[in-house]
């Protein structure tokens, strides 16, 4: 599916060939938006001479950056590793380095690049027709022709607005902030040991969508259930733990002053198999 980068040295000392650049994959579909339970997803298919690549850009309710997924055919038998991924735009010279995970899905013979905390600003305000290159230490360079980049930010913003409105939240208040509230280690707020014992015995599982009301100092004042898991014990316990443990860097208004705010996210209660 991909051409590796080669530097061919001639036997003759007077000739050195140039590196072979990666094939540039062209758009094969428009940007398609998908409304998930916890995020807005943008997807697009790119095709080359020997195969296709799918890009997915996801942004969660908390607006804390996006996730970038790129699905390709595998070029290695290795199942999983982590490495730095370098993004660059040929036409502008813009560069971005992110830590990425590479997961080979054996049953479907696919490889998924996963890059978290991706800055959408990197893809905004670009010329209409640019080439995005992705490089890592272990995988061959990938190159994709990007068009319609302005539609990415517009589509994600509209999706976010619609999703917030389904929960009865005024998105204009969120837009008015200079800085969104920033959670402090949210991955540590709820742990496996927090699973309610009664719910665990009964096999209750489900996803709780919630909103936290945050004061000007970043303390959580209240947890509000936006969409139930289907089990009151899971909903109530999630809120009780979140009210106790969640902390934030407070939001800022346009003047740079601390203000009260809200933060929407979800937690999945799932019994380990």
Describe the structure.
With 273 residues, the chain is α+β, with helices and mostly antiparallel strands. 15% of the residues lie in helices and 41% in strands. It contains four helices and 17 strands. The strands form four sheets. The protein has a nine-stranded mixed barrel with strand order 1-3-4-5-8-7-6-9-10. A hairpin with a 5-residue loop joins strand 4 and strand 5. The radius of gyration is 22 Å and the shape is globular. The N terminus is likely disordered.
How confident overall, as mean pLDDT?
A: 82
- Can you count the beta strands? 17
Overall geometry: globular
- N-end to C-end Cα span: 36 Å
- Uncertain spans: 1-18
What is the helix/strand order?
Answer: EEEEEEEEEEHHEHEEHEEEE
Q: How would a crystallographer describe the biggest sheet? A: 9 strands, mixed, barrel
Order of strands, widest sheet: 1-3-4-5-8-7-6-9-10
Which value, in Å, is the CA radius of gyration?
22 Å
Strand content: 35-45%
Alpha-beta classification: alpha+beta
Helix content: 10-25%
Number of helices: 4
Question: Main traits of this protein?
Answer:
single chain, 273 residues, alpha+beta, nine-stranded mixed barrel, 17 strands, 15% helix, disordered N terminus
Please outline the helices and strands.
Blueprint: E1 24-27, E2 32-35, E3 39-47, E4 52-60, E5 66-72, E6 80-89, E7 95-105, E8 110-118, E9 129-136, E10 142-147, H1 150-166, H2 171-175, E11 182-183, H3 197-202, E12 206-214, E13 220-227, H4 232-245, E14 248-249, E15 251-252, E16 258-259, E17 261-269
Parallel strand pairs: 1-10
Antiparallel strand pairs: 1-3, 2-3, 3-4, 4-5, 5-8, 6-7, 6-9, 7-8, 9-10, 11-14, 12-13, 12-17, 15-16
């Amino acid at each position: 599916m991909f051409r590796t980068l080669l530097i061919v040295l001639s036997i003759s000392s007077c000739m050195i060939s140039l590196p072979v650049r990666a094939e540039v994959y062209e758009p094969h579909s428009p940007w398609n938006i998908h409304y998930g339970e916890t995020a807005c997803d943008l997807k697009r298919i790119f095709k080359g001479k020997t195969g296709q690549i799918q890009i997915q850009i996801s942004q969660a309710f908390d607006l804390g950056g996006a996730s970038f997924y790129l699905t390709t055919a595998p070029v290695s038998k290795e199942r999983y590793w982590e490495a730095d991924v370098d993004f660059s735009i040929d036409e502008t010279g813009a560069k971005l380095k992110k830590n990425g995970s590479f997961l080979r899905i054996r049953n479907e013979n696919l490889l998924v690049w996963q890059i978290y905390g991706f800055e959408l600003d990197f893809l905004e305000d670009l010329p209409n027709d640019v080439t995005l290159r992705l490089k890592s230490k272990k995988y061959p360079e990938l190159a994709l022709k990007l068009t319609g980049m302005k539609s990415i930010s517009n589509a994600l913003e509209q999706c976010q607005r619609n999703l917030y409105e389904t929960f009865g939240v005024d998105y204009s208040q969120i837009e008015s902030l200079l800085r969104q509230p920033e959670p402090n280690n949210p991955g540590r707020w709820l742990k496996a040991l927090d699973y309610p014992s009664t719910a665990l015995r009964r096999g209750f599982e489900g996803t709780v969508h919630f909103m936290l009301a945050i004061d000007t100092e970043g303390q959580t004042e209240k947890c509000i259930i936006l969409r139930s898991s289907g089990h009151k014990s899971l909903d109530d316990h999630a809120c009780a733990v979140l009210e106790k443990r969640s902390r934030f860097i407070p939001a800022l208004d346009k003047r740079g002053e601390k203000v009260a705010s809200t933060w929407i996210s979800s937690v999945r209660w799932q019994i380990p198999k």
